[in-house]
């Protein structure tokens, strides 16, 4: 592929706080050694890495091929800096491109002007070298150029993903406050789910994000097997046979689901959305879905319970404090022997649950600070439980 000649590293973008999770995923997928960045992970750019990283990784948001990095004092410096990149290397024939930007800089008043200067630099350089002027096409570009500015540092890259990678291709319906798929996959990893041994329960499943990601993981279905398009597919030199080879390789990791995956929700509409999404993801038969309030469950869940209960920043829920108290009581009295993960942006969550977590992770859901709190659910007193665990480890 044309991008193979451009850089010897790839930049994988992710959410703040998920860098370590993504690094581990890269190592497991044979894409390492991975290096940690800020909301980013760097991996070697080998022959199949662009295709493999886009299709195999659950916790990456984009796969970028870096083209250049430079410092600026004013927006006009972007023009000079961008002229140093050899755009004409890959914009060889009449090319259409689009710029996507993320700008966080006190030096720049208007993001639009920064983008304009970049477009001018690309067009002027390609015209001088190749004799034609590339055109900007927001709908069907040949190339997607990524402009990232943090204070006075500019990064220019080619985006090989197109739509961000949380868009797996299976979502047909959104619930009221659906979790981002990349975040959901990261929560499952952070909770340490043993997908071949532990049952998986989401008793507030909404549109089904957590259970669908869990079913994908338990069945070895890589996100790229849901059939979404990627921008690398349109890049000159894209070798369809190579793409097919990566797909075949990913498909060879499919496996039978050995555990129960259960999603339930008190809301009829949410459950309908979960059913439609699960069917579209090919998991109608693997995820058990039921409309029910968790307080009415008449059996004892086992394995891992991973829940994203409402919190009043995004869904106004009257009686939220009581809901968390009741959830805490339910976990304490009805889930002995299981583990639980509660992901919430409700600042009182831990206090209201009344349970002591074994571990917490500070994360974000969009711009809302959230906590993933992990619990070991046992009968009786915590001290006695910990003593017993210690003794069992010694035997
Ligand atoms: C933040 S949303 C979960 C979103 C979900 N993770 C997704 O990706 O779509 C919280 C869900 O909790 C459900 N819920 C609230 N109270 C409940 C209860 N007592 N029993 C079961 N579900 C409840 C709501 O209907 C809502 O769908």
CATH fold topology of the largest domain? Rossmann fold
- The first-level CATH class name of the largest domain: Alpha Beta
Structural class of the helices, strands and pairings?
alpha/beta
Quickly count the helices.
11
- Can you count the beta strands? 15
* Integer tally of domains: 2
Largest sheet: 8 strands, mixed
| The CATH fourth-level homologous superfamily of the largest domain | Vaccinia Virus protein VP39
CATH architecture of the largest domain: 3-Layer(aba) Sandwich
Q: How does this structure look, described?
A:
The protein is α/β, with parallel strands linked by helices and 395 residues long. The chain folds into two domains: 2-159, VC0802-like, CATH 3.30.2130.30; 181-220 and 255-388, Vaccinia Virus protein VP39 (Rossmann fold), CATH 3.40.50. It contains eleven helices and 15 strands. The strands form two sheets. It has an eight-stranded mixed β-sheet with strand order 2-3-1-4-8-7-5-6. The chain has a seven-stranded mixed β-sheet with strand order 11-10-9-12-13-15-14, covered by helices on one side. A hairpin with a 2-residue loop joins strand 14 and strand 15. Helix 2 (49-56) crosses helix 7 (240-251), helix 3 (77-83) runs parallel beside helix 4 (111-130) and helix 5 (181-190) crosses helix 6. The chain is elongated and about 75 Å long. The structure holds S-adenosylmethionine (SAM).
